[in-house]
Amino acid sequence: MDSVSLVPLGGLGEFGMNMMALECGDDILVIDAGMAFPDAGMFGVDYVLPDLTWLVERRENVRGVILTHGHEDHIGGLSNLLQHVDVPVYGVDLTLALASHRLRENGMLAGAELHHIDPDSQLDFGSMSVEFIPVSHSIPGALAVVVHTPIGAILHTGDFKLDHTLKGDDGFDVGRFAELGSEGLLLLMSDSTNIEAPGLSPAEASIRPRLDQLFHQARRRLLVATFASSLYRVQQLIDLAVDHGRAVAVTGRSMVKNVQVGTDLDYIWLPDNHVVDIRDVRKMDPEKVMVLMTGSQGEPFAALSLVSSDSHAHLRLEEGDTVAMSARIIPGHEKAITGLVNNLYRRGADVHYGPGAGIHASGHGSREDLRMMLSLTRPRFFIPLHGEFRQLTLHARLAQEMGVPSENVCVAENGQRVVLTEDSCSVEETVPAGRVLVDGRALDNLDEIVLNDRRQLSEDGMVIITIVIHRDTGEVQGSPEMVSRGFIYMADSTELVDETKQLAVDTVNRLTVKERLDQETSQEAVRAALRRFFSKR
Ligand SMILES: [Zn+2]
């Protein structure tokens, strides 16, 4: 065996749905099985999954899937993967507990083969053996994966930052990374998410003083929205609530779930006498409660949005309440968030959000963290992971700056199979890969045509004209019916409606009898005439 293939099925050239396959001889190992959330233009799409065609065609060879940590963009596609490929799953207890929730929801838990690992575990997958290195991230239990192959060691960092304030298995094992460098690392694949942020990524603990200040200033109730998966943040907020004599209420489905999983596994410390049911918050002294909630991105049905529109079942914002959004603004969500903030102010709240508030620290390494990874491990070859093309490119340049020869740096996107040997690394071919759009209510995966229809409906609305044509004579019978949605309000536009109907009838009448009786021809003629008519107006 003198080569290893790396097949990115998600997360390269885009953010989210991270999935990388490593193929060595007849053995395939998969790292992560993530999902992505839909872009603004994907109407009615609930989530996005990687196309698994390449993997399914080789399902006999897939030996295992390793989950680096418990974030949705690394575990959210697991049900779909297991539906198509029956394969054992490996992860630390927290990661598997979070993944199990989703498997259970999808009725897949009973059939899943889940294996608990810890950072010291060593696994064999045919020709490949695997070890793990703890990294710091915004959730406990994050691991980097080292795959030992016959041609050398390959390191996949997962998501990471260098946070010296996190210790033990949550900390960043600088020593082991340096050792790996001394042993001679063949290939480094590293997280590019925050390459555009200069300097070192701020530690999670660095935002504590600002959060503390917020607790000091809050005169009445304090509502804090953050990502349910940012367990360190959740813990910081709970610690501060306890320090400031505030009980903790939790609302929002994923927040309730993650706090439950976190406390069950002792990753979150939340003493029972500090917990208050969300239904009892209204009875509490407003200075004695903090509500932890979802909705930091202005997601329409998340807890904070419901509160901002006064439609939360148990929580009503009052004059003088404080709302903090302890999260980054994910690109694409700016509009939703500013709308949300306006509504919160409208209800008399004091709102803290955005970069200026200083109440969020990223879980991903900034440029200097990424440089540190390169200098510790000194790889012969480099492939940037997790990012759009610009992040991948900038990370590739950083690797060159750090001494990796340009011909040894390979920027690949989803579906580009990279072949690695002891002395080369390059894209060999393109395999089937891409996004599968899932509408939770639809029977099957969404077709691009359906999505286009939805887009068109949302942008232009629609008009339906029904004309009855006599099957023998081809004569138009009676007056046409017209229905419009999202285009004109018909009751106020009788003139336009009449004109439209007349145009449709005239158009049919201009056709020969044979053409009129051919449904496709007459339909197309009317459609074209109406399109011209409306676009001129
Ligand atoms: Zn992550």
Structure write-up:
The protein has three domains: 273 residues, Ribonuclease Z/Hydroxyacylglutathione hydrolase-like (Metallo-beta-lactamase, Chain A), CATH 3.60.15.10; 154 residues, Rossmann fold (3-Layer(aba) Sandwich); 76 residues, no CATH class. The strands form five sheets. An eight-stranded mixed β-sheet has the order 7-6-5-3-2-1-19-20. Strands 8-9-10-11-12-18 form a six-stranded mixed β-sheet. Strands 14-15-13-16-17 form a five-stranded parallel β-sheet, with helices on both faces. Helices cover 31% and strands 23% of the residues. Helix 14 crosses helix 16. The protein is of the alpha/beta class and 537 residues long. The chain contains 16 helices and 23 strands. Bound molecules: zinc ion. The site of zinc ion (ZN) has 5 residues, from loops. The site of zinc ion has 5 residues, from loops.
CATH level 3 topology of the largest domain = Metallo-beta-lactamase, Chain A
Number of helices: 16
Count of folded domains: 3
Residue fraction in strands: 15-25%
Radius of gyration based on Cα positions: 28 Å
Give the full name of the CATH homologous superfamily of the largest domain: Ribonuclease Z/Hydroxyacylglutathione hydrolase-like
**CATH C-level category of the largest domain:** Alpha Beta
Walk across the major sheet and give the strand order: 7-6-5-3-2-1-19-20
Q: What's the total count of β strands?
A: 23
Rough shape? globular
Bound molecules: zinc ion
Residue stretches low in confidence (pLDDT < 50, at least 5 long) are none
Structural class: alpha/beta
Mean pLDDT: 90
The termini sit apart by 68 Å
Residue share in helix? 25-40%
CATH architecture of the largest domain: 4-Layer Sandwich
Give a quick account of the main beta sheet: strands, pairing sense, barrel closure: 8 strands, mixed
